[in-house]
Write a structure and sequence with these properties.
By secondary structure, this protein is an alpha/beta fold. 42% of the residues lie in helices and 18% in strands. The chain is globular and about 60 Å long.
Length: 286
């Protein structure tokens, strides 16, 4: 049975994530109090012939009961029930904006004095140990709802027992660093297609841009060094039991050089038989 616990910061995108999981066949439950998770997991395990994929959201809406989440996880582990944790987060500024747009009340508003910002900071501190236990972390600060759904589907549509998933992610430094990155590489040192009039409005998915980026000797040398480093590191992460490795490649705008490199790394890992996905966070930005 595939058992997913979705959690994270309020306003981080948990509702959209659970909807995406439901769309790909998971039996989903929202706002599950931690004390009920163990019993629910037992019932699902007994019904695994009819319910083979389960996902639930648990978070600080449980208020004082949420502190029991760590005891609950220990109980689940003691019963040999395999689970994965998906943690959703966003920057403080983005969370404040989302709450102001929706005009919803933060779940900690009654227990944490002061402003909305205080509630967000307190919740982030409260969730530090849970984030550390998470198998998958998605920062939704700079991605659209459609990109979040795509990320969730890529994470969980495959066989979770098939080993670690490597996520190749391109991004633009001008829009901010991806906080979920495990390995982050900067390709701004390479010649930039943006300054070529015929390439400016294309992306690294176009052959013309790929050929321009990779025509330089330093590009090929950089890529080969990345291949060697990733080949060396992957087994080490697997041995540590890591479920996801995010390899982020950044350039200035996230449309040309970083996309080219992310695609090349993705294709190489795919040829090696790795469980791998690729996404381009900022490719549509102007």
């Amino acid at each position: 049975m595939e058992f997913i616990i979705v959690t994270g910061l309020s306003g981080g995108g948990k509702s959209r994530a659970i909807n995406a999981l439901e769309d790909i066949g998971y039996y989903c439950v929202d706002n599950m109090p931690p004390k009920l998770i163990t019993k629910f997991a037992e019932l699902c395990a007994q019904s695994k012939e009819t319910i083979s994929k389960v996902a639930m959201v648990t978070d600080t809406r449980s208020r004082d009961h949420f502190s029991g989440i760590y005891d609950t996880l220990n109980e689940i582990e003691a019963q040999k029930i395999n689970y994965k944790i998906l943690f959703l987060e966003a920057s403080d500024a983005v969370l404040v904006r989302r709450y102001k747009e929706t005009r919803r009340k933060h779940p900690l508003a009654d227990s944490v004095p002061g402003s909305l910002e205080n509630c967000i900071r307190h919740e982030r501190e409260l969730l530090i140990p849970l984030r550390a236990k998470a198998d998958y972390v998605i920062d939704t600060s700079l991605i659209s709802p459609a990109q979040l759904k795509e990320s969730v589907v890529k994470l969980f549509l495959g066989d979770l027992s098939a080993g670690m998933l490597v996520r190749c992610l391109s991004f633009g430094f001008k829009y901010g660093n991806p906080t979920e990155a495990d390995l982050m590489f900067d390709v701004r040192c390479l010649p930039n297609p943006f300054y070529q009039d015929e390439l400016k409005n294309l992306t690294g998915l176009d052959k013309q841009v790929h050929d321009y980026v990779m025509q330089w000797p330093q590009s090929g040398d950089y890529l080969n060094r990345l291949y060697d480093l990733i080949d060396y590191l992957l087994p080490l992460y697997v041995n540590e039991g890591k479920s996801q490795l995010v390899v982020a490649i950044g350039c200035t705008g996230g449309k040309h050089r970083s996309v080219t490199f992310a695609e090349l790394i993705y294709k190489r890992l795919q040829q090696q038989g790795q469980r791998v996905s690729v996404s381009h966070r900022d490719i549509q930005k102007q």
